[in-house]
Structures are given as structure tokens and as C-alpha cells.
Write a structure and sequence with these properties.
Layout: H1 6-16, H2 24-30, E1 35-39, E2 42-45, E3 50-53, H3 56-59, H4 68-80, H5 93-105, E4 110-116, H6 119-136, E5 144-148, H7 157-162, H8 166-169, E6 178-181, H9 186-190, H10 196-214, E7 219-224, H11 240-251, E8 254-258, H12 272-276, E9 282-285, E10 297-302, H13 303-312, H14 326-341, H15 344-363, E11 369-375, E12 378-383, H16 399-409, E13 412-413, E14 415-417, E15 420-423, H17 431-454
Parallel strand pairs: 3-13, 5-6, 5-7, 7-8, 8-9
Antiparallel strand pairs: 1-2, 2-3, 4-10, 9-10, 11-12, 12-15, 14-15
Helix pairs in contact: 1-2, 4-14, 5-14, 6-13, 10-11, 15-17, 16-17
The structure holds 3-[O-phosphonopyridoxyl]--amino-benzoic acid.
């Protein structure tokens, strides 16, 4: 069969396909980019361009593309048993083995898992599970879940409500009993503080103020991403999470760590809560559990919650057709075994993460950069108009999008969140590949600076 040309793909896409988080009309006029294949950390598009994938697909292809062990696991499971459910007192060996393996790689309080199909579904499960927990304990009034502005927890009604994205709240509303506090974003909210750690304590105190305002007897849980991903790779001060833990413990509030991006090695530990020193009661995961090769998500349920639901809860009226899908579970097992075999978590912590941090510290010298942050294999560069004063650009200029355009044009996928440029590349990179990525970033910053000067935006 003849391969379609790019414009033929684009016309068919425009005619029939509505993309997520997209202005449909604008994209149809412009034409989508068609990705046709990938290997290791490089994508190919329908024009034959080779592109370094600095975002691991969508924060998920942690082991890189083309891993034969994952392909073989999926193929074998598809042949043996492509589907069976875990609803009516049945299960499959793949689901059992993955549950066992997750208990092994997650922190010790986690011995049980509830499977879902994605991160959003996992967070729906969180809402139902924490409310059920308090019901069973005879405290049904404990319903409120506290989250943060500019958090991302998915796009279902519960995920979008937990998230703190105002554009999403404006389209569809927010579910009752979900409230938001300000995020621990030093560059935006903390520059007047004496120190970053002092700001971390202040940002955590906003949680205590909110709990007191609502009444602790009405607060079910606090949810947060250890490092905000979609919000712009916002790495909180080291003082933040331990203080959040102390406040939640004091008021009996459950702690939920949304590890959809930070799980499975991204921060240099298996899970972000280990990097930031806190002990969640529940953990959402997705993405890196299968390195994105196939959809899978879920919730790790800590002993505090599991013991109550198991011993006293009776039937939990919740689940998805694809909870524990055997093919997804088989791929997850192969993926986790690969991470273990290749010691990827240790590599991120000891070699790749520190190297990326050094490279980003050098990029921070660039005249356009007001702040550089990394955590393991995720990094952010804040573009500013004035390096000395850290004054930002007028957001309507969309300087981040100008920079992103240069990245695309020069064979690098790097995301812009406003004027914050972010990367989260695969964990299998070599040092030479990190150099290649950083070289491309520097080139694109130079091109963006030239544009800024030429257009008189500086
Ligand atoms: N929690 C977190 C922390 C996430 O980052 C979800 C939940 C939802 O997962 P699903 O599998 O339902 O998408 C996510 C997803 C972006 C971007 O633009 C980030 C995500 C998804 C799509 C785009 O950075 N994160």
C-alpha cells in the first residue's frame, strides 16, 4: 500500500480527529505534525525529520522507544490471554504478579494496588477511596480534598477538579468539596521571602490555614505532585513536603502523592515522595509504569487506608473494565524488570540527574534565563526579559512559544509552559545524548534571544 504524504495525513486528521487540549479550527488550518516511528530517544516524522524527544513522549517513555522486552511481553500476553477482567472474583497471573512487584518497588507502607487505565482514572479512584475511607470510619463529613493552584491531576471530571488549571475549571466546572491553595512556586510567589526554605514553610502554612478555615473534621485529604510537571516543572523547596506531612499528621488528613510523572525513577528514587522525604497514604501512578507503551494507571493504597477498607469496608462499589488489564500488566512487569536490570533509578540519582543539573546551571548563565531548576531527569528554564531584575516578558508576546518553535525547527522536543521551558527526557540517555540535548537547547535560546532583540521586546 502506498504511504500517504504528509498533507494527505493532515487533511484526513483535520477532517476526523479532535485532538486533546487543542483549538480544533486553528490546528486544522495549520496541519498537525505526524510522528511515524521512533527508536531509543529519537522520533521520526512523516517528513523524515529526526527529533530528539526531550519530553519522553508525554513524560512517560522512561525506558526509551523500541525496547524488545516490552514488545515481547505484550506479544506473548496477547497470544496467551488478551483480556480477562478482575471484577467477579477472577483475576489473571499478570495482574497478580504486577501487584506483587509494585508492592516490592514502592515504599513499605504500600502492599496493595487498585488498577485503573490512566492517571485521570487513578485520581477518580482516589476521590472515591478517600471519601469511602472516612465513611467507613464513621466520619462521612470528612469530604473536602485540598489541592493546589496550577496542579495537574488529569482531565476527567475528578481529575480536572483536583487539578488547579483555571482554563479547565472554566469548561465544565469543579466538583463539590474540592478546594485549592497556592502552589509552592518560588519564582512566582516567593521572591520576597528571606530564603527558599523559608518560602517552603510559608507555602506549607497555607495548607494549615485552609484546614483550620474549613475545620479539620471536614478535610479528607491533601493531594499534590511531588514536583509539579504540567504546571512547569516546579520543584518545591526542600522544606515544603516534610512540613506538609507534619501538618497533615497533626490534623489526621490523608496525604496523597500524585506520582503519575514522578514515579518509576524520574526524580532519582523510585517515587518522588522518597526524594522529598514524605510518607503518603495513597499514591497515584500511570505513565512510567509501562513507559507509555500501553495505557495503565492505578493507586497504591497504604496500610492505613487498606486495613480499614479490607477489614471494615465491605464492598467497594468502584472499578473499570480495564482494571488489571493483563496485556498492560505484562508490559508493566517487563518495564519494571528492565528498570531494575539496567539500574536506571540509581543512574538517574548518581549520574544522569547530577549531570543534567550541572548543564542547567551553565544554561542559567544565558541572558534569557532567570531561573533554572532540575530534579532528577526533569528540568525547567524560566525565560526572563531582564536577567538582573528577573522581570518577565508580557505573556501576550508568547516568548515561550517562539522558543518552542525554534526547538521543533532544530530537531528537539521541549515544552513551553508560558515562558517556562521544560524537559523530561528518557532515563536511558547517555551522557553524550544529554550533551546533544543541551547543545540544542542552547542553540534555541540563542535563536530566541536574537528574535527578542530584533522585535524590540528586550
Ligand atoms: N496526574 C499527573 C501528575 C499528571 O501529570 C495525570 C495525573 C493524568 O494522567 P492521564 O493518564 O489521565 O493523562 C497527569 C497527566 C502536559 C501533560 O501538557 C501532562 C499530562 C497529560 C497530558 C499533558 O504536560 N499529565
Amino acid at each position: 500500500m502506498r504511504q500517504r504524504t504528509t498533507s494527505e495525513w493532515q487533511a484526513a486528521d483535520a477532517a476526523h480527529h479532535l485532538h486533546p487540549f487543542t483549538d480544533f479550527k486553528a490546528l486544522a488550518a495549520k496541519g498537525t505534525r505526524v510522528i511515524t516511528s521512533a527508536d531509543n530517544i529519537y522520533l521520526r516524522d512523516s517528513e523524515g525529520h529526526k527529533i530528539l524527544d526531550g519530553m519522553s513522549g508525554l513524560w512517560c517513555v522512561n525506558v526509551g522507544y523500541g525496547q524488545q522486552a516490552l514488545i515481547d511481553a505484550a506479544t506473548a500476553q496477547l497470544k496467551q490471554l488478551p483480556f480477562y477482567n478482575s471484577f467477579f472474583q477472577t483475576t489473571t497471573p499478570a495482574a497478580i504478579e504486577l501487584a506483587e512487584l509494585l508492592a516490592e518497588v514502592t515504599p513499605p507502607q504500600f502492599r496493595h494496588v487498585f488498577f485503573a487505565g490512566s492517571g485521570s482514572e487513578g485520581n477518580d479512584t482516589i476521590v472515591r477511596m478517600v471519601r469511602r475511607y472516612w465513611d467507613v470510619l464513621g466520619q462521612p463529613q470528612r469530604k473536602v480534598i485540598i489541592s493546589r493552584n496550577n496542579a495537574y491531576h488529569g482531565s476527567t471530571m475528578a481529575g480536572g477538579s483536583l487539578g488547579g488549571m483555571s482554563g479547565m475549571h472554566a469548561q465544565g466546572g469543579v466538583m463539590p468539596d474540592i478546594v485549592h491553595i497556592e502552589q509552592p512556586f518560588w519564582f512566582e510567589h516567593g521572591r520576597a521571602s528571606a530564603s527558599v526554605d523559608e518560602f517552603g514553610l510559608k507555602a506549607a502554612s497555607w495548607l494549615e490555614a485552609k484546614i483550620v478555615e474549613i475545620g479539620a473534621d471536614k478535610v479528607a485529604a491533601f493531594i499534590g505532585e511531588p514536583v509539579q510537571g504540567a504546571g512547569g516543572v516546579i520543584v518545591p523547596p526542600a522544606s515544603y513536603w516534610p512540613e506538609i506531612q507534619r501538618i497533615c499528621d497533626k490534623h489526621g488528613v490523608l496525604v496523597v502523592s500524585d506520582e503519575v510523572i514522578t514515579g518509576f525513577g524520574r526524580t532519582g528514587q523510585w517515587f518522588g515522595c522518597e526524594t522529598f522525604g514524605f510518607k503518603p497514604d495513597l499514591m497515584t501512578f500511570a505513565k512510567g509504569v509501562t513507559s507509555g507503551y500501553i495505557p495503565l494507571g492505578g493507586v497504591m493504597v497504604g496500610d492505613r487506608v487498606a486495613n480499614v477498607l479490607i477489614e471494615q469496608g465491605g464492598e467497594f462499589n468502584h472499578g473499570y473494565t480495564y482494571s488489571g488489564h493483563p496485556v498492560a500488566c505484562a508490559v508493566a512487569i517487563a518495564n519494571i524488570r528492565l528498570i531494575q536490570r539496567e539500574k536506571l533509578v540509581d543512574r538517574v540519582r548518581e549520574e544522569l540527574g547530577p549531570y543534567l543539573a550541572t548543564c542547567f546551571a551553565e544554561l542559567a548563565e544565558h541572558p534569557l534565563i532567570g531561573e533554572a531548576q532540575t530534579c532528577g531527569m526533569m528540568g525547567a528554564l524560566q525565560l526572563v526579559k531582564n536577567k538582573a531584575t528577573r522581570a518577565v516578558f508580557d505573556s501576550s508576546l508568547e516568548v515561550g512559544m517562539v522558543c518552542r518553535g525554534h526547538c521543533f525547527g532544530n530537531g528537539l522536543i521541549m515544552r513551553a509552559v508560558g515562558d517556562r521551558m521544560i524537559v523530561a527526557p528518557p532515563l536511558v540517555m547517555t551522557i553524550a545524548q544529554v550533551d546533544e540535548m543541551v547543545g540544542l537547547i542552547r542553540k534555541c535560546l540563542d535563536l530566541t534571544l536574537a528574535d527578542v532583540k530584533q522585535r524590540g521586546w528586550d
